[in-house]
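Review form for a predicted model. The reviewer records the input and the model, then writes brief findings.
Reviewer: anonymous (R2)
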Amino acid sequence: MNAPTEAARRSALLPPATGAWQEGDPAGGRRWVELREPLPLEAGGELPGVRMAYETWGRPAADGSNAVLVLHALTGDSHVTGPPGPGHPTPGWWDGLIGPGRALDTDRWFVVAPNVLGGCQGTTGPSSYRTEGQRWGGAFPYLTTRDQTAAEAALADLLGIERWALVVGGSMGGMRALEWAVSSPARVDALLLLASTAAASAEQIAWSGIQLRAIRTDPNWRGGDYHDAGPGRGPHEGLGLARRLAHVTYRSEAELDTRFRRAPQGSEDPWRGGRYQVESYLDHHAAKLVRRFDAGSYVVLTEAMNGHDIGRGRGGTTAALRRVGARTLVAGVDSDRLYPLAQQRRLAAGIPGADRVRVVESPYGHDGFLIETEQVAALVAELVGG
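Model under review:
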Protein backbone atom coordinates (compact mmCIF):
# COMPACT_ATOMS: atom_id res chain seq x y z
CA MET A 1 0.00 0.00 0.00
CA ASN A 2 1.13 3.53 -0.70
CA ALA A 3 2.08 5.65 2.30
CA PRO A 4 -0.33 8.49 3.07
CA THR A 5 0.53 11.71 1.31
CA GLU A 6 1.48 14.78 3.32
CA ALA A 7 -1.78 16.39 2.24
CA ALA A 8 -3.74 13.39 3.53
CA ARG A 9 -1.90 13.53 6.85
CA ARG A 10 -2.67 17.23 7.21
CA SER A 11 -6.32 16.62 6.32
CA ALA A 12 -6.60 13.95 9.03
CA LEU A 13 -5.54 16.53 11.63
CA LEU A 14 -8.27 18.97 10.62
CA PRO A 15 -11.64 18.91 12.37
CA PRO A 16 -14.53 17.59 10.29
CA ALA A 17 -16.95 20.14 8.85
CA THR A 18 -19.33 19.19 11.65
CA GLY A 19 -18.77 17.52 15.01
CA ALA A 20 -22.25 16.02 14.88
CA TRP A 21 -22.85 12.31 15.37
CA GLN A 22 -23.15 10.82 11.89
CA GLU A 23 -24.89 7.78 10.47
CA GLY A 24 -22.38 4.94 10.61
CA ASP A 25 -20.67 6.26 13.75
CA PRO A 26 -20.73 3.95 16.80
CA ALA A 27 -24.07 4.13 18.62
CA GLY A 28 -22.51 4.02 22.08
CA GLY A 29 -25.29 3.95 24.67
CA ARG A 30 -27.81 5.64 22.39
CA ARG A 31 -31.18 4.28 21.40
CA TRP A 32 -33.61 5.83 18.97
CA VAL A 33 -37.31 6.21 18.33
CA GLU A 34 -39.07 7.64 15.30
CA LEU A 35 -42.02 9.88 16.08
CA ARG A 36 -45.18 8.50 14.52
CA GLU A 37 -46.43 11.82 13.17
CA PRO A 38 -44.87 15.06 11.90
CA LEU A 39 -44.27 17.46 14.78
CA PRO A 40 -46.36 20.68 14.65
CA LEU A 41 -44.21 23.72 15.39
CA GLU A 42 -45.21 26.68 17.51
CA ALA A 43 -44.01 29.18 14.88
CA GLY A 44 -46.04 27.41 12.18
CA GLY A 45 -45.63 24.43 9.91
CA GLU A 46 -44.37 21.05 11.01
CA LEU A 47 -41.20 19.00 11.20
CA PRO A 48 -41.49 15.62 9.46
CA GLY A 49 -39.44 12.51 10.07
CA VAL A 50 -38.34 13.32 13.63
CA ARG A 51 -36.00 10.85 15.29
CA MET A 52 -35.11 11.16 18.98
CA ALA A 53 -31.90 9.77 20.45
CA TYR A 54 -31.85 8.94 24.14
CA GLU A 55 -30.05 6.90 26.79
CA THR A 56 -31.43 5.10 29.83
CA TRP A 57 -30.12 3.70 33.09
CA GLY A 58 -31.92 1.41 35.52
CA ARG A 59 -35.18 -0.43 34.90
CA PRO A 60 -38.74 0.88 34.73
CA ALA A 61 -41.07 -0.18 37.53
CA ALA A 62 -44.06 -2.30 36.56
CA ASP A 63 -46.40 0.56 37.47
CA GLY A 64 -44.23 3.17 35.71
CA SER A 65 -43.72 5.15 38.90
CA ASN A 66 -39.93 5.47 38.91
CA ALA A 67 -39.12 7.32 35.67
CA VAL A 68 -36.80 10.34 35.89
CA LEU A 69 -36.21 12.76 33.01
CA VAL A 70 -32.80 14.47 32.86
CA LEU A 71 -32.51 17.38 30.41
CA HIS A 72 -29.16 18.67 29.17
CA ALA A 73 -27.86 22.20 28.60
CA LEU A 74 -26.79 23.83 25.32
CA THR A 75 -23.77 21.73 24.33
CA GLY A 76 -24.69 18.65 26.34
CA ASP A 77 -26.25 15.45 25.02
CA SER A 78 -27.84 12.21 26.18
CA HIS A 79 -24.58 10.89 27.66
CA VAL A 80 -25.21 12.06 31.22
CA THR A 81 -23.12 9.38 32.85
CA GLY A 82 -20.47 6.90 31.76
CA PRO A 83 -16.94 6.99 30.37
CA PRO A 84 -15.92 8.30 26.96
CA GLY A 85 -15.70 5.69 24.25
CA PRO A 86 -16.91 4.83 20.76
CA GLY A 87 -19.80 7.13 19.98
CA HIS A 88 -19.19 9.30 23.06
CA PRO A 89 -16.11 11.55 22.77
CA THR A 90 -16.54 12.94 26.28
CA PRO A 91 -17.43 11.42 29.68
CA GLY A 92 -20.88 11.88 31.15
CA TRP A 93 -21.53 15.49 32.02
CA TRP A 94 -23.25 14.63 35.37
CA ASP A 95 -21.32 11.44 35.98
CA GLY A 96 -21.43 11.65 39.76
CA LEU A 97 -25.20 11.99 39.95
CA ILE A 98 -26.48 8.79 38.32
CA GLY A 99 -25.71 5.18 39.17
CA PRO A 100 -26.02 2.61 41.96
CA GLY A 101 -25.86 4.31 45.34
CA ARG A 102 -25.81 7.81 43.86
CA ALA A 103 -28.46 10.52 44.16
CA LEU A 104 -30.34 9.12 41.16
CA ASP A 105 -29.83 5.54 42.24
CA THR A 106 -30.36 3.31 39.22
CA ASP A 107 -31.37 0.45 41.54
CA ARG A 108 -34.40 2.63 42.33
CA TRP A 109 -34.91 4.99 39.40
CA PHE A 110 -35.32 4.52 35.66
CA VAL A 111 -33.41 7.50 34.26
CA VAL A 112 -34.06 8.77 30.73
CA ALA A 113 -31.94 11.43 29.01
CA PRO A 114 -32.86 12.51 25.46
CA ASN A 115 -30.73 14.49 23.07
CA VAL A 116 -32.72 17.67 22.49
CA LEU A 117 -34.63 18.28 19.26
CA GLY A 118 -32.36 20.40 17.06
CA GLY A 119 -29.28 18.87 18.64
CA CYS A 120 -26.45 17.04 16.94
CA GLN A 121 -25.90 13.83 18.85
CA GLY A 122 -28.43 11.54 17.24
CA THR A 123 -31.67 13.54 17.39
CA THR A 124 -33.02 15.31 14.32
CA GLY A 125 -31.25 18.62 13.77
CA PRO A 126 -29.55 20.68 11.04
CA SER A 127 -26.93 17.98 10.39
CA SER A 128 -29.61 15.30 9.88
CA TYR A 129 -30.89 14.06 6.54
CA ARG A 130 -34.38 15.03 5.43
CA THR A 131 -36.85 12.50 4.09
CA GLU A 132 -35.73 13.57 0.59
CA GLY A 133 -32.19 12.40 1.35
CA GLN A 134 -30.60 15.84 1.68
CA ARG A 135 -29.22 17.48 4.81
CA TRP A 136 -31.47 19.93 6.57
CA GLY A 137 -28.64 22.45 6.88
CA GLY A 138 -29.80 26.06 6.75
CA ALA A 139 -33.37 24.99 5.92
CA PHE A 140 -33.89 23.55 9.40
CA PRO A 141 -36.89 25.35 10.95
CA TYR A 142 -36.92 27.71 13.90
CA LEU A 143 -37.67 25.81 17.12
CA THR A 144 -38.99 26.88 20.50
CA THR A 145 -38.64 25.29 23.91
CA ARG A 146 -42.25 24.15 23.56
CA ASP A 147 -41.45 22.33 20.33
CA GLN A 148 -38.57 20.57 22.05
CA THR A 149 -40.67 19.44 25.02
CA ALA A 150 -43.43 18.32 22.66
CA ALA A 151 -40.90 16.03 20.98
CA GLU A 152 -39.79 14.76 24.40
CA ALA A 153 -43.44 14.12 25.33
CA ALA A 154 -43.81 12.05 22.16
CA LEU A 155 -40.69 10.12 23.17
CA ALA A 156 -42.19 9.48 26.62
CA ASP A 157 -45.38 8.21 25.00
CA LEU A 158 -43.41 5.78 22.85
CA LEU A 159 -41.54 4.57 25.93
CA GLY A 160 -44.83 4.06 27.77
CA ILE A 161 -44.08 6.71 30.40
CA GLU A 162 -47.25 8.50 31.45
CA ARG A 163 -45.78 10.47 34.34
CA TRP A 164 -42.32 11.46 35.49
CA ALA A 165 -41.41 10.97 39.15
CA LEU A 166 -38.87 13.77 38.64
CA VAL A 167 -37.87 16.15 35.87
CA VAL A 168 -34.50 17.84 36.36
CA GLY A 169 -32.53 20.26 34.22
CA GLY A 170 -30.11 23.14 34.40
CA SER A 171 -29.71 26.18 32.15
CA MET A 172 -31.33 25.26 28.80
CA GLY A 173 -32.34 21.96 30.38
CA GLY A 174 -34.05 23.94 33.13
CA MET A 175 -36.02 25.88 30.53
CA ARG A 176 -37.35 22.62 29.13
CA ALA A 177 -37.99 21.18 32.59
CA LEU A 178 -40.08 24.23 33.45
CA GLU A 179 -41.94 23.98 30.15
CA TRP A 180 -42.75 20.34 30.94
CA ALA A 181 -44.25 21.32 34.30
CA VAL A 182 -46.31 24.16 32.80
CA SER A 183 -47.50 22.52 29.60
CA SER A 184 -48.05 19.02 31.05
CA PRO A 185 -48.52 19.47 34.81
CA ALA A 186 -50.29 16.12 35.18
CA ARG A 187 -47.16 14.35 33.91
CA VAL A 188 -44.63 15.77 36.43
CA ASP A 189 -44.56 14.73 40.10
CA ALA A 190 -41.40 16.58 41.14
CA LEU A 191 -39.34 19.31 39.50
CA LEU A 192 -35.76 20.48 40.05
CA LEU A 193 -34.81 23.69 38.25
CA LEU A 194 -31.13 24.66 38.30
CA ALA A 195 -29.54 27.93 37.16
CA SER A 196 -32.40 28.76 34.82
CA THR A 197 -35.10 31.35 34.24
CA ALA A 198 -38.75 31.90 33.32
CA ALA A 199 -37.76 33.94 30.27
CA ALA A 200 -34.50 34.87 28.59
CA SER A 201 -33.38 38.32 29.66
CA ALA A 202 -32.18 41.12 27.41
CA GLU A 203 -28.59 40.56 28.53
CA GLN A 204 -28.77 36.81 27.90
CA ILE A 205 -30.18 37.49 24.42
CA ALA A 206 -27.41 40.03 23.83
CA TRP A 207 -24.61 37.61 24.73
CA SER A 208 -26.23 34.93 22.59
CA GLY A 209 -26.77 37.32 19.71
CA ILE A 210 -23.05 38.07 19.51
CA GLN A 211 -22.33 34.33 19.41
CA LEU A 212 -24.86 33.83 16.61
CA ARG A 213 -23.28 36.69 14.66
CA ALA A 214 -19.83 35.12 15.04
CA ILE A 215 -21.05 31.87 13.50
CA ARG A 216 -23.13 33.40 10.72
CA THR A 217 -20.38 35.74 9.57
CA ASP A 218 -17.85 32.92 9.24
CA PRO A 219 -17.22 32.53 5.47
CA ASN A 220 -17.55 28.76 5.89
CA TRP A 221 -21.07 29.07 7.30
CA ARG A 222 -22.50 29.05 3.77
CA GLY A 223 -25.99 29.82 4.99
CA GLY A 224 -25.89 26.72 7.16
CA ASP A 225 -25.16 24.35 4.25
CA TYR A 226 -21.59 23.32 5.07
CA HIS A 227 -21.97 19.80 6.49
CA ASP A 228 -20.44 17.97 3.53
CA ALA A 229 -17.72 20.55 2.80
CA GLY A 230 -14.88 18.34 4.03
CA PRO A 231 -12.30 18.50 6.87
CA GLY A 232 -11.38 21.99 8.00
CA ARG A 233 -14.09 23.64 5.91
CA GLY A 234 -16.85 24.06 8.48
CA PRO A 235 -17.54 27.35 10.30
CA HIS A 236 -14.97 26.51 12.94
CA GLU A 237 -13.70 30.04 13.50
CA GLY A 238 -17.21 31.31 14.15
CA LEU A 239 -18.18 28.42 16.40
CA GLY A 240 -14.87 28.72 18.24
CA LEU A 241 -15.43 32.44 18.86
CA ALA A 242 -18.95 31.72 20.07
CA ARG A 243 -17.62 29.12 22.47
CA ARG A 244 -14.91 31.42 23.81
CA LEU A 245 -17.42 34.15 24.56
CA ALA A 246 -19.94 31.75 26.07
CA HIS A 247 -17.33 30.11 28.27
CA VAL A 248 -16.35 33.44 29.81
CA THR A 249 -20.00 33.98 30.80
CA TYR A 250 -20.19 30.45 32.19
CA ARG A 251 -17.39 31.05 34.71
CA SER A 252 -16.95 33.72 37.36
CA GLU A 253 -14.52 36.64 37.21
CA ALA A 254 -13.01 35.63 40.55
CA GLU A 255 -12.39 32.04 39.45
CA LEU A 256 -10.70 33.09 36.21
CA ASP A 257 -8.52 35.61 38.01
CA THR A 258 -7.53 33.19 40.77
CA ARG A 259 -6.75 30.47 38.26
CA PHE A 260 -4.88 32.43 35.60
CA ARG A 261 -4.04 35.92 36.86
CA ARG A 262 -2.03 37.66 34.10
CA ALA A 263 0.30 34.75 33.49
CA PRO A 264 1.59 34.14 29.96
CA GLN A 265 1.10 30.79 28.30
CA GLY A 266 4.33 28.89 28.77
CA SER A 267 7.18 30.70 27.06
CA GLU A 268 4.85 32.84 24.93
CA ASP A 269 5.29 36.60 25.28
CA PRO A 270 1.97 38.52 25.12
CA TRP A 271 3.95 41.67 24.23
CA ARG A 272 5.17 39.94 21.08
CA GLY A 273 2.03 38.25 19.83
CA GLY A 274 1.93 35.46 22.41
CA ARG A 275 -1.04 34.46 24.55
CA TYR A 276 -1.96 34.75 28.17
CA GLN A 277 -2.90 31.52 29.93
CA VAL A 278 -6.56 32.49 30.01
CA GLU A 279 -6.51 32.92 26.23
CA SER A 280 -4.95 29.50 25.79
CA TYR A 281 -7.66 28.07 28.07
CA LEU A 282 -10.39 29.52 25.86
CA ASP A 283 -8.61 28.30 22.72
CA HIS A 284 -8.59 24.80 24.20
CA HIS A 285 -12.33 24.81 24.85
CA ALA A 286 -13.05 26.20 21.39
CA ALA A 287 -10.96 23.48 19.72
CA LYS A 288 -12.71 20.77 21.72
CA LEU A 289 -16.17 21.99 20.81
CA VAL A 290 -15.67 22.19 17.05
CA ARG A 291 -14.73 18.49 17.07
CA ARG A 292 -17.80 17.32 19.01
CA PHE A 293 -20.59 19.77 18.13
CA ASP A 294 -22.37 21.23 15.15
CA ALA A 295 -22.50 24.96 14.41
CA GLY A 296 -26.01 24.65 12.96
CA SER A 297 -27.27 23.04 16.16
CA TYR A 298 -25.55 25.74 18.19
CA VAL A 299 -27.54 28.33 16.22
CA VAL A 300 -30.88 26.50 16.44
CA LEU A 301 -30.58 25.79 20.16
CA THR A 302 -29.36 29.29 21.01
CA GLU A 303 -32.28 30.81 19.14
CA ALA A 304 -34.67 28.54 21.06
CA MET A 305 -33.13 29.71 24.33
CA ASN A 306 -33.46 33.36 23.28
CA GLY A 307 -37.14 32.74 22.51
CA HIS A 308 -37.82 31.08 25.86
CA ASP A 309 -40.71 32.80 27.65
CA ILE A 310 -42.89 30.61 29.85
CA GLY A 311 -45.64 33.24 29.93
CA ARG A 312 -46.02 33.68 26.16
CA GLY A 313 -49.64 33.15 25.21
CA ARG A 314 -50.51 32.13 28.77
CA GLY A 315 -51.42 35.44 30.33
CA GLY A 316 -47.89 36.26 31.43
CA THR A 317 -45.23 34.67 33.63
CA THR A 318 -47.22 34.80 36.87
CA ALA A 319 -50.21 32.99 35.40
CA ALA A 320 -48.00 30.40 33.70
CA LEU A 321 -46.02 29.56 36.83
CA ARG A 322 -49.23 29.01 38.76
CA ARG A 323 -49.91 26.03 36.49
CA VAL A 324 -47.04 24.08 38.06
CA GLY A 325 -48.42 21.36 40.31
CA ALA A 326 -45.20 19.46 40.93
CA ARG A 327 -43.23 19.49 44.16
CA THR A 328 -40.58 21.97 43.13
CA LEU A 329 -37.12 23.05 44.16
CA VAL A 330 -35.48 26.02 42.47
CA ALA A 331 -31.73 26.40 42.85
CA GLY A 332 -29.13 28.85 41.60
CA VAL A 333 -25.38 29.32 41.85
CA ASP A 334 -24.18 32.18 44.04
CA SER A 335 -21.44 33.21 41.57
CA ASP A 336 -23.53 32.86 38.39
CA ARG A 337 -23.35 36.07 36.36
CA LEU A 338 -25.20 34.68 33.33
CA TYR A 339 -28.31 33.35 35.14
CA PRO A 340 -28.11 35.32 38.39
CA LEU A 341 -29.92 34.31 41.56
CA ALA A 342 -32.51 37.06 41.09
CA GLN A 343 -33.96 35.03 38.20
CA GLN A 344 -34.31 31.92 40.34
CA ARG A 345 -35.87 33.97 43.13
CA ARG A 346 -38.58 35.11 40.71
CA LEU A 347 -39.19 31.50 39.71
CA ALA A 348 -39.46 30.35 43.31
CA ALA A 349 -41.77 33.22 44.20
CA GLY A 350 -44.13 32.34 41.36
CA ILE A 351 -44.31 28.54 41.60
CA PRO A 352 -46.77 27.27 44.22
CA GLY A 353 -44.89 25.65 47.10
CA ALA A 354 -41.42 26.65 45.89
CA ASP A 355 -41.03 29.14 48.69
CA ARG A 356 -37.31 29.87 48.55
CA VAL A 357 -34.25 29.41 46.38
CA ARG A 358 -31.65 26.84 47.34
CA VAL A 359 -28.20 28.30 46.76
CA VAL A 360 -25.37 26.23 45.31
CA GLU A 361 -22.15 27.70 46.67
CA SER A 362 -19.44 27.62 44.05
CA PRO A 363 -16.61 29.78 42.69
CA TYR A 364 -17.25 28.44 39.18
CA GLY A 365 -20.12 30.64 38.05
CA HIS A 366 -22.92 29.25 35.89
CA ASP A 367 -20.98 26.01 35.39
CA GLY A 368 -21.33 25.37 39.11
CA PHE A 369 -24.56 23.45 38.54
CA LEU A 370 -22.51 20.90 36.55
CA ILE A 371 -19.46 20.89 38.80
CA GLU A 372 -20.92 20.91 42.33
CA THR A 373 -22.39 17.42 42.05
CA GLU A 374 -22.57 16.79 45.81
CA GLN A 375 -24.70 19.88 46.35
CA VAL A 376 -26.97 18.97 43.44
CA ALA A 377 -27.26 15.43 44.85
CA ALA A 378 -28.42 16.90 48.16
CA LEU A 379 -31.15 18.81 46.32
CA VAL A 380 -32.30 15.63 44.60
CA ALA A 381 -32.42 13.86 47.97
CA GLU A 382 -34.40 16.72 49.49
CA LEU A 383 -36.95 16.49 46.70
CA VAL A 384 -37.39 12.76 46.18
CA GLY A 385 -35.51 11.13 49.09
CA GLY A 386 -32.07 9.60 49.24
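Findings: The first helix runs from residue 6 to 13.
Further findings: The CA atoms of residues 110 and 132 lie 36 Å apart.
Recommendation: see findings above.
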